[in-house]
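Worked example

This section walks through a single chain of length 435. The input is the sequence exactly as stored; nothing has been trimmed or padded.
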Amino acid sequence: MAACNTLTDKAIKAALKKAGQTATAITVNDGGGLTLICRPDGAGWWRLRYWLASRENRLSLGTYPEIPLTDARKRRDEARATVAAGIDPSEQRKAAKMARITRAEASRLAAAGLPGPGTFEHAARGWHARMSVSWSPTHAVKVLALMVNDLFPYIGASLLSELTAPELLRHARRIEERGATETAYRALKAAGAVFRHGVQNGYCESDPTRDLKGAVQLPVPEHRAAITDPARVGELLRAIDGYHGTPVVRAALQLAPLVFLRPGELRKAEWAEIDLDGATWTVPAARMKGRLKAKLNGLAHVVPLAPQAVAILRELQPLTGSDGRRYVFPNPLTPERPLSDNGVLSALRRMGFGPDEMTGHGVRAMARTILAERLNFAPEVIEAQLAHRVPDALGRAYNRTLFLPQRRDMMTKWADYLDLLRRGAQVIDLKGKAA
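Given that input, the structure is written out below as tokens.
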């Protein structure tokens, strides 16, 4: 067995003196893995060599003379006892340091009235701050509101490491009981993301929501109501033409079936986006549905305008497009803002089309259904016009500018078809069936 405790203070001072004279560090051993690195500047660094799981490691035990020989030996013996117990003293030291930092941060946050490190709310806010840079502002607000309203009041102050699957399920059931099943599902999903963030940052060791998969079933989505019967479409178009509301809302109602954009994309239309002479409307990627990355770096959506759509816009232009005004469909109370969400919906209700029959979004389903089933247009052309990202046989997503000639032809024929339905004509589709 190798000798232990072989150093003396006299030997250490001699080694330090020699290191100063040779300008080279000298290492002296005390046994048991303890060494002192004597530097030319007169300082000494205690180091411990130890083996754990057949792997050599090193641990700093302080500096000499601040840590004298007797204290260095005491630290060596304590570390060796830790190793004998199968614990890595280096990792133990890191954990203790992290605990001190966590306690200090907890005190600081508590003084400010904020949740401390390791709590669900603290981890959730950290996760949200990290992820929200890649989300749209609207989505970021919705996710934070979900946690603020349905999670923080109940488990926000709880430590992640102490929360259990049954407890999380109990809170999800509480949300379910008020009839908000989808909210309960999304709350568990958000909680799972928070726990994974917690694991990555050392707040907990696992994600208990992984044992809750299937505990809350996402409700079957209800498709937005849409009129797809051609005869009923004709009635809708005639009702729109006879609408006695404002010219702006009537124009929005008339244009919607001719472009079948999403309601938000339609009502936020700007005159700068529309080329009436070129019969084209270019919707910026920032206003299209999609993730923030697509909004910032994606391609604009080009909408070919049929002659009927151009005519509607030309008639509206003197009313809302003069004097440098921005929005095609401005809000009647504050023209600096676009038409509200309820503008078109309220008009549909006043015309007698209930929420179970037609919605502002329903024109998209109406167009998709009739174009495919009645007019026999290619699905990829329809999907491109709807700005849906559908992969082709090679796995590529359709570019929003693809099929532009085909879409221009389709939109013109679609507008002509709607005119026929408006007049109440019996239309024979391309499959030989009466509309």
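What to look for: The chain has three domains: 9-95, 120-212, 230-422.
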